[in-house]
From TrEMBL, chain A:
InterPro entries, per the entry: DhaM, DhaM_N, PTS_EIIA_man-typ, PTS_EIIA_man-typ_sf
Taxonomic path: Bacteria, Bacillati, Bacillota, Bacilli, Bacillales
One term under GO cellular component: membrane
Subunit structure: Homodimer. The dihydroxyacetone kinase complex is composed of a homodimer of DhaM, a homodimer of DhaK and the subunit DhaL.
Protein name from the UniProt record: phosphoenolpyruvate--glycerone phosphotransferase
Gene Ontology MF annotations: phosphoenolpyruvate-glycerone phosphotransferase activity
UniProt keyword annotations, A-Z: Kinase, Transferase
Catalytic activity of the protein: dihydroxyacetone + phosphoenolpyruvate = dihydroxyacetone phosphate + pyruvate
EC number: 2.7.1.121
Stored SUPFAM superfamilies: PTS system fructose IIA component-like
A Gene Ontology biological process term: phosphoenolpyruvate-dependent sugar phosphotransferase system
Organism listed in the record: Lacicoccus alkaliphilus DSM 16010
Main function: Component of the dihydroxyacetone kinase complex, which is responsible for the phosphoenolpyruvate (PEP)-dependent phosphorylation of dihydroxyacetone. DhaM serves as the phosphoryl donor. Is phosphorylated by phosphoenolpyruvate in an EI- and HPr-dependent reaction, and a phosphorelay system on histidine residues finally leads to phosphoryl transfer to DhaL and dihydroxyacetone.
From TrEMBL, chain B:
SUPFAM superfamilies: DhaL-like
Transmembrane regions listed in the UniProt entry: none
Pfam families listed in its UniProt record: Dak2
Claim: Heme is one of the keywords in the record: no
Alphabetically ordered keywords of this record: Kinase, Transferase
Name of the protein in its database record: Dihydroxyacetone kinase, C-terminal domain
DhaL domain ranges (all copies): 4-189
Species assigned in the record: Lacicoccus alkaliphilus DSM 16010
Length: 120, 194
């Protein structure tokens, strides 16, 4: 089953979005990380770490500024076996839509297609 | 340039960025958030500490990964990822032709990942023109690189944090362009130490 990865500049946004999704679409695997240390930011290491834990194809969501750049680099350097996609959809609405679609059995291509209509 | 010389040069950047911390901080305080000096110093402290002997490819890749994980903001990942990409094209010993190729990759990577083109007052304005000031002997002279960075002084920032300063960004050399001068100078094939 497709998994979801969330990278945010804020730890609270990452964990808050994760709990929102998990409540609305139980059973969907969500990897979420945000902030650097106690502050605001993203770091490629935390994305690498999440990617090392995915066990299926994964759709990634990002928020502002350099999070996309870090995400793109981490995905380009990813050497695992799964298909890792980046969605340019709003982090909350996009990941929520993806989770619902995953829970009703849609595949990654269908979900990415849906998400492409939600560009931020 | 062989692996030993490359490692020495990259380790020496720790001293360079320690010396230049105040300069970069001052520039970044004008048109950014003032953390570029400390970021670059932190990055190359980590390089000095963690990057050890290996082939040219290993050294470039280790440097890239170290910079990506130790510098905040956009500059660390951009420099770091560029080193990773350069490692894939580096030969066992870097000659002038190989250095040209590496400079192309450096510029392409920064352009693709930073979503920049020329004239936007960024590190790209120095990196993308480094090939033009590269001597036939492979020298990347500090004074030539500095001229490229100085050219960013009259530019208006449209990318990165400096873009928020718009017209006010004019009159200050871009901090990323300035740090690129030191990094590129470390890749110079000139034998003598400056």
């Amino acid at each position: 089953m497709t998994e979801i990865l969330i990278i945010s500049h804020s730890k609270d946004i990452a964990s808050g979005t994760k709990s929102l999704i998990e409540q609305m679409a139980a059973g969907v695997t969500v990897h979420a990380s945000g902030g650097v240390g106690d502050g605001i930011g993203t770091n490629i290491g935390q994305i690498d770490h999440m990617l090392s834990e995915v066990e299926s194809d994964t759709i990634c969501f990002f928020d502002i500024g350099s999070s996309l750049m870090n995400l793109e680099m981490a995905v380009e350097m990813y050497e695992g076996d799964h298909d890792i996609r980046i969605a340019n959809a709003p982090i909350v609405e996009g990941s929520f839509l993806a989770a619902v679609e995953i829970s009703i059995g849609k595949n990654i291509d269908e979900i990415m297609d849906e998400l492409s209509g939600m560009v931020k | 340039m062989d692996n030993t010389m490359l490692l020495q040069r990259l380790h020496k950047l720790q001293e360079v960025f320690t010396d230049k911390e105040a300069e970069l901080t001052a520039l970044d305080r004008e048109i950014g958030d003032g953390d570029h000096g400390v970021n670059m110093k932190r990055g190359f402290n980590a390089v000095k500490e963690k990057v050890t002997e290996g082939s040219i490819q290993d050294i470039l890749k280790q440097t890239g990964i170290t910079l990506m994980s130790s510098i905040g903001g956009a500059s660390g990942p951009l420099y770091g990822f560029s080193f990773v990409k350069m490692s894939e094209a580096a030969k066992g010993e870097i000659d002038v032709d190989n250095l040209k190729k590496l400079l192309d990759i450096f510029a392409e990577t920064v352009s693709a990942k930073g979503k920049v083109t020329g004239g936007e007052k960024t590190m790209y304005d120095v990196i993308s023109k480094a090939g033009e000031v590269l001597g036939e002997d492979g020298a990347l002279k500090l004074e030539d690189l500095q001229k490229l960075a100085d050219d960013t002084e009259d530019m208006t920032a449209t990318k990165g944090r400096a873009a928020y300063f718009k017209e006010k960004s004019r009159g200050t050399v871009d901090p990323g362009a300035q740090s690129a001068v030191y990094i590129l100078n470390a890749l110079s094939l000139e034998e003598e130490e400056r």
